[in-house]
Structure formats: structure tokens, C-alpha cells
Amino acid sequence: MNDNALMNKAADNIRVLSASMVEKAKSGHPGGPMGGADFINVLYSEFLEYDPENPNWEGRDRFFLDAGHMSPMLYSVLLLSGKFTMEDIKNFRQWGSPTPGHPELDVARGIENTSGPLGQGHAYGAGAAVAAKFLEARLGAGIDHTIYSYITDGGIQEEISQGVGRLAGHLGLNNFIMFYDSNDIQLSTTTDVVTSEDVAKKYEAWNWKVITIDGNDVNEIRKALTEAKAEKDRPTLIIGNTVMGRGALAADCTSFECQVSTHGQPLSAAGADFAQTVKNLGGDPENPFVIFPEAQKLYDKRKEELKEIIAAKKAKHDEWAKSNPQLAAKKQKWFARELPDIDWASIVQKPDNATRAASATVLGVLAQKVENMIVASADLSNSDKTDGFLKYTKAFEKNDFSGAFFQVGVSEFTMSAMCIGMSLHGGVIPACGTFFAFSDYMKPAIRVAALMETPVIFVWTHDAFRVGEDGPTHQPVEQEAQIRLLEKLQNHHGHNSMLVLRPADVNEATVAWKMALENAHTPTGLILSRQNINNLPDSGYQQALQAEKGAYIVQEDENYDVILLASGSEVSTLVEGAELLKADGVKTRIVSVPSEGVFRSQPKEYQESVLSKGKKKFGLTAGLSVTLEGLVGADGEVWGMNSFGFSAPYKVLDEKLGYTGKNVYEQVKKLLKS
User: Fold this and answer.
1) CA-CA distance, 361 to 394, in Å (whole number)?
2) Annotated active-site positions, please?
3) Percent of the chain scoring above 90 in pLDDT
């Protein structure tokens, strides 16, 4: 146990560095980091176990920051831990710096997740805890670490916290410890203006162990973390009552603590005196970017302690691996995301079936072949057909993670974020399902997954107005255009930030799953039909493999007059229209476009060989017309949905809304005359 005076000195160093970063950048959030410095210092100098030499070591404890605006606090403690340089800290929020305003995933520097949108970070932590439990159930002693998370008042208020609180408590995630920095201040008000709930009672009702402490007292923090580590039955919430802007002074050296103004702007702009504050905390206002000798000594000592801790853990692991060579080999493959051999061509699909049913067939195979796969559903497993996976396993229960299915209840946002956390943890391949219309609830998490390049698979069924009688609330129209924007948005590696696939028949659905599983670099979205779809002409797995290029020619007449293009079920409607056109002497080429993003990444020669320049083009989409307008261009027209849907049987809707072979015939004839 370290001397408390030494611990307080190191925490003050974190406060000085945090305030100085924000002051120099002329933007940021100093007050919260100054209040949270004591907890983060105790956690990193006495509890968090990681390998200083190998940041990717799979046996490490993991720390998930929910409140990304607390980045100065995290960067400061990681500076003390040797993960950042002082130059990095000085360049906080600047171009090209590894210290952006909100932390971005950088495991090499000790950052386990991108955070900023409040609520998501602790959901990632809970998902990581689920992944660890899942792996422990399969590998036993090969998994032994703790997941920590740090949340603030805003994260507690975000609605996603209800889903995380309910599920973590329900599953008894005793490997999950969350610190709640409760300082009664948020960006524009004190918290009593917006809430009067009893947070402790709320989490106790969700079956959490709750410990309330003075969050600036080293002894109380240490005691709480020790208790939380010893808890065998529940996740733990440590409510730390902290002081916003702890140590801040005004020009007359009176306290400037507990001020709303210090939450989101530099101390000097907030009304505090930066120089007096730095002096009060033991720093030099003329040279504030300094590691105190006491803090250096503390973290050097921790580095040596960690070497011993990690050596002992690795020796124990090596002993386990020697006794369990098959499990050790599995673990290595799983964390490397190595896939087993899957004979995709041998998967037998029922012809003319719904693509959600085809997905269920594939999931049944994956449940038996991919041992480290987890599938989740938001109370829709029997409708989004993720139950194809569930038939070969069982749902998670408290104290029993031997199954591989995560029933989350009606909680799409929570589900998506927790699955992202599973992927961030590593060793597992998560997928989650719901209706496509409800992808709206998931968008904030999908966006951050795309930013982090996290390969979660999203399964969205009931892909269009053919949900029918359920009506416009359940009928996606604009959703495909929205989600495909992430195919156009480039991530920081210059690649499409998401893979989005809408297969045209059961065989394309098999290929779509193949592409999803093999995509280890971005999220994947599978958009699947509720209703049956006629197989494409000459349909089969080998033909459908062309979908891997994003778009391909399904069939064509020699010297064709017009190109017909679509994705999903509309491709089979084009086939019907082409038959009518053929009888009338019009020759066609039909193109299936499951992914414009993948297609646009192909060589220009291939793109032009499929969508030839100068040829008339007709696009058909059950989404907004803009979904295909970029491919059709000035050479033709798109028939799309430009209004909400209606409640009626889907075949009636097809007739009323123009999604028939007859209307394709009429629109193409009109186009060719223009």
C-alpha cells in the first residue's frame, strides 16, 4: 500500500496536467478530470493489471471510459504510465496529435475504446465483461481479468444506462466494476435541476452491489475497489462523491470548486485563476507540463510491481496451456480472429425463400462451426430468425455462460453497444439482430463502431414496406439510404467505414454471411427480407459469389437496350419485368447491387463493364430513390419510395406502390421513349 501523501501528490499532478492541457488548447473540460484524479490514480497505481511491455496482452484488465470529455484525466494517467509523451500531452486537441478531444481507440497507448457520446462507453465495458464470461466458460483458468468502467452524471442519465444496468445485474457480471463520478455538476446546470432519482437504489434494484464513498479519499477508493474485486455474485457500482474542479482557486485564492463553468471550458475562461490553481496543486504556472518526482516514483514502482504480477499470471497461464493444449490453441486462434474452415458452397438453401430464413440456415451452420460466436437479439429471435443459431445453443443465464445466445429484451441501442464491447474485448465474434426499422435506435453505436473499425455484424430483417399490415411504423424507407452513407464515409485508414449488404435471394444471403464473417475491419450490416423471394435465374452459390464484387450481371440479352438494377427482393421484380419487356422486343441486362460501397471499390474497368456508360438505366428500390441515384446517374430513372408506407397486405402494397413486373415494364418503356 502506498503512502497517502504520495498518492495525493500524484493525483494533484494529474489535476495540474489536465487543467494545463485544456488551458493550452483553449478548449476542453478541466473540472471533471480534476475531480476524478484521485480515483484514476488509485486504479492505475494500485489495481489495474496490464503488461507495460505488451499492451495487446489478452489477459489484461480493461478500462472503458464512458465520459470522453474526461480525456485529460486519462491522458495524464497514461502519461505517468509511460504510454504518452509530454509532447503528446502539450498537443492536446491539435491536428495529428494522438490526444484528440475525446479519446479514440488506441490499445497500444492503453485506450480500449473511443468515447464521447455519453452512455456508450460503459455499455462497451459491460459487453466486454460478457465476452470474458463467455470465454471463461469455454477456457476456464485461461481467462482471469477484471473489466473497469468510468461513468459520470451524463452517462447515468442517458437512456442506455437502463439497459446496461438491467442486463449486467441480471447476468450477475461480477467481473464488471464501474466507478460513478458523482459531482453534482454537468455542462449547463447542477444535476438537481434535471434529476432527483436515487441512483444507488436504482442499481440495487438491478441487482448491483453499490458502494458509496468520498471519491476524493484514497482510503475509501482503495477499500471500495478491494470490496468490488472480492464480489462473487454481482457487478459493482462505486458511487464516488467528488468535487468538480478540485483544487481550483479564484484570483484572490478563495476556492473556485463546484462551479458549473469549469465543466466545459478552460479554468481562466470559467472565472478561476489558472496560475493560482496550479500553484495550489504544487505545480509551476510558468512550466506546468511537468511530472512531479513523487508521481514518477509512484508509477515507476507500479511498473516494477506489474512486471511481477504479469510474470506470475503468465506462468500460471503457461501451466494451464501446458495442461490444456487444445484449449490454449483455441484461445490463440480466437483472439487472432482466425475462422474455422466453413464449406459455404455446401450450405443447402430452400429455393424461393425469404432471405431472413436463408440467414437462419447459415446461422445454424455457424452455431456448430464457429465456437467463439455470440448472437444477440432484441426480443425478436423468432422473427429476425436469429433463432437459427439459438436452436444449436442456449441463452446466457446468471452463472451460466455455456450457451452462446444473448437475449437482451427490447433494448436495441444497449444490445448494439454491448456487442461492440464484446468485439473490443477480443476473442469473440458478435452478431445482433432486430427489425431494420429499429436500426434507428442503434445508429449512434453503429457510427462509433465504424469509427473504431470494430467488426460487429448487425442483422436487420423486415427490410421494406413488405412488412405489410404492421404499417409505416415498422416499414423502413429511409433507413437503407442512411446506413449506406457509412459505405460512402471513409474511416481513418481510407476504407469504407462499413460493409452493407442487401442480398437478392437465398444464395446471395449465404455469400453475404461469408463476406460479413470474413470482414475483420469494419462493422457489417445485413439487410434481409421478411417475405419469400424468387431465386434469381441460374441461381446457385457459384453465381452468387459474384456478389463479393458488390454488383454483378445476373442475366443479359445480347445487344441489350437498357440496364435494370436493384438490390434485395427488387431484383426478382426486375426479372419479372424483363420477361414482359422481352416479349415486347426490349432487350435487358439485369444487375444485382447488394453493396454499392463494395462495387465502388472495384477497378473502374469492372464498374464500367457492369454499368456501361451511355446505356439507359432503370433502378428499382423499396427505399428512397437516392439509394440508387448515384449508380443510375443521368442515364435513367429510379423508381423508389418517396413517402412513408401504408398498412395493408404486402402484395396489395406491391400493386399500389408499383413494385410489380408490370410497372417495371411500363416505366422502362417510358424511359426508352424519353
Assistant:
1) 17
2) 412
3) 99
